[in-house]
Amino acid sequence: MPAHARKPMHMTAPPAHAALDATLARQRAAYLAHPVPTLAERRRDLQTLQRFIRDHKEALCEAISADYGNRSRHETLLAEIFPAIDGIDHVLKHLKKWMRPQRRGVDWRNFLGARNRVIPQPLGVVGVIVPWNFPVNLSLVPLTYIFAAGNRAMVKMSENSRHLARLLIDRMPAYFPREKLQFFDETGGVGIAFSQLPFDHLLFTGSGQTGRAVMAAAAHNLCPVTLELGGKAPAIVCADFDLRTAAERILFVKFLNAGQICTSVDHAWLPEAGIAAFVEHARQIVPTRYPRLDTPDYTSIIDEAAFERLLQALDEARARGAQVISLLPGPSHDRATRKIAPHIVLDAPEDCLLLTREIFGPILPLRGYANLDTVIDSINAGPRPLAIYPFSKQARTVQLLIDRVMSGGVSVNDALFHVGQHDLPFGGVGESGMGHYHGVEGFHTFSKLRPVFYQARFSTLKLLWPPYGKLASRVLAFLTR
């Protein structure tokens, strides 16, 4: 049964669910009335989305900071506003080429004039479930590819993004009608109902635990899903790489957004002989970037639960013999602002919280190794990470790590940067996610690459119609020789 003919799982709908159902019905009707927007229409949608971002740049920064308690304005501009604006420019540049039907090769079946084509066509209505950590980036960047592919969209924001959700709900209708785009806040049970809707595609970004629930809900409608999850992404510093440079780059990514990034460096592997020097570099570098805990350049932890979880993980590691090092002078945390100072942790037990669960905060465990095989075996013993970050000047060493450690993506001699390359697909593998978007792959994810065969005036298969005689036998003998 086609997606547009399926019914939602719930039979009786409370008011919030009824609004979701009504919006989906409205958008699907609009899709069926106009299923394939032109290039000009898609370009206009993308330009409108870009205009919204530019018109509300400061308001978006303020709303996100209000949701966090304090979110560095510069981090929002760098990691959310700029990628969204720049990504739209990239798509506008390539969209005409992406929309072009692909010609496929000629073989014996179509040498008399039959043709093969692959036509990218819109899927219909796409659902997007957005996390709180980069809510502008992870809503508007997917919308770039959803609109480029000619679709309509419903977007469900996080319960931790109330100020931003209100801004989007209130102001986006002046730019897009509800039958094209509508945002929803999490008002209790909306997320579950949203994931149960019979979308034509569903994109979820968030934790693995919630991702499993979303995938299970979508499975009832056979709704295809793209899951962008997370995991314990390691940095692997090799002996030949300069430790100061590695520290500067790893620490920037680790403490960006106070570590609340799915592709952040979760922990770092270092040659055992280099750990002390790395710690000393960190003690010098971090205070120059964040002179004190209350600097507006340093972001708060999103909520009380996350704040307590991180402090508990630090306390557990300390109680079990780990060395916990705060990298800023003064208090290590402030409950009033939900800020936790950047920390390094040494000698954490293998089974402690910091080494077994995704950290998602400003805490960097350092792990020593004597042989690179130890690192490879340890990473491969766990779930496949969303990214790995090898640091080495030796191309053979880098390739060894790429070959032997599977991950969603790789940044070599830096961290995180593969995510910001508009020409590279972004996505996980295994427990870190499935599917991808960004680049042409994003356009393809939200399109149906529809194969179309155009028969020639004379069908060569006519030679094989029954009753089967000598000619058919000779043709089949030739084909199966």
Kindly describe this structure.
The protein has 481 residues and is α/β, with parallel strands linked by helices. It has 2 domains: 3-229 and 433-450, 3-Layer(aba) Sandwich (Aldehyde Dehydrogenase, Chain A, domain 1), CATH 3.40.605; 234-426, Aldehyde Dehydrogenase, Chain A, domain 2, CATH 3.40.309.10. Helix content is 41%, strand content 16%. It has 16 helices and 18 strands. It has helices spanning 15-33, 39-55, 57-68, 73-99, 137-148, 162-171, 190-195, 208-219, 243-255, 275-289, 304-319, 353-356, 372-380, 395-404, 439-445, 470-479, and strands at 102-103, 115-122, 125-129, 152-156, 181-184, 201-205, 225-228, 234-237, 267-271, 323-326, 333-334, 339-340, 343-346, 363-369, 387-391, 409-410, 433-434, 447-454. Helix 9 crosses helix 10 (275-289). The longest helix has 27 residues, at 73-99. The protein is globular and about 85 Å long. The model is unreliable at 1-13 (pLDDT under 50).
